[in-house]
Amino acid sequence: MTTPATRPLTALEDIRARIAQAARIAGRPEDAVELIAISKTHPAEAIAPLIAQGQRVFGENRVQEAQAKWPALREAHEGIALHLVGQLQSNKAEDAVALFDCIHSLDRPSLVDALGKAMDKAGRRVPCFVQVNIGAEEQKGGCAIADVPALLAAARTADVPVSGLMCVPPADIEAAPFFALLAKIAADNGISQLSMGMSSDFEVAVMLGATHVRVGSALFGARG
Ligand SMILES: *Cc1c(COP(=O)(O)O)cnc(C)c1O
């Protein structure tokens, strides 16, 4: 019998294996976590190899950059899902609804209104995550924790579908308590999906219940 030559894991295989391992440790099904490959700043040539390896879910943080990159990639490959993970200006709501399959940065009533109108006009409801400013950081996007229930109510009124909560914890401190807090806020509000965990902390996020992890540099290398 011949044994297949061993080769090093690709970055994508490595991340997938680590997500599966973290899920196993936490007693969660391995397929409970969606890996979103964050391709912001990286050109189509860097994205194509991941698509060739079977990755289909990608994230961008700028509407204009995504408009420039993704229509051609989508034409060439079936089944691509595109998530918006960056701050969204209300005047870009129509463009975002046209291009993205999920929006992770719903964080204020004016954006609920703009997205509601854009979805009405497009005849398409795009699932959203409410971004929570989990570390109460002044400079950071996201809804204040105390305002989450009111924002969820506004979204229901405007028929903007909210499937989960999202956070980016403060840099340079242990992320786990912030992930646990986001999970508690979600549970308190009857919400089941959690978009949390990036290259440096996705395993702990998975152990604390992440359903979506957003991994960029660990897949693509450092951004220039
Ligand atoms: C860039 C970005 C990521 C990915 O960050 P990495 O540290 O490169 O994995 C995840 N979420 C958001 C909101 C981002 O802007």
What is this entry, summarized?
It contains nine helices and eight strands.
Structure report:
The protein has one domain (11-220): Alanine racemase (TIM Barrel), CATH 3.20.20. The chain has nine helices and eight strands. The chain has helices at 11-25, 44-52, 63-76, 93-99, 109-122, 148-157, 176-188, 202-207, 217-220; strands spanning 34-38, 57-60, 81-84, 102-106, 128-131, 162-166, 193-195, 212-215. It has an eight-stranded parallel β-sheet with strand order 7-6-5-4-3-2-1-8. β2, α3 and β3 (81-84) form a beta-alpha-beta unit. α4 (93-99) packs across α5. Bound molecules: pyridoxal-5'-phosphate. Residues 38, 40, 61, 85-86, 168, 198-199, 214-218 line the site of pyridoxal-5'-phosphate. Pyridoxal-5'-phosphate is lined by residues 38, 40, 61, 85-86, 168, 198-199, 214-218.
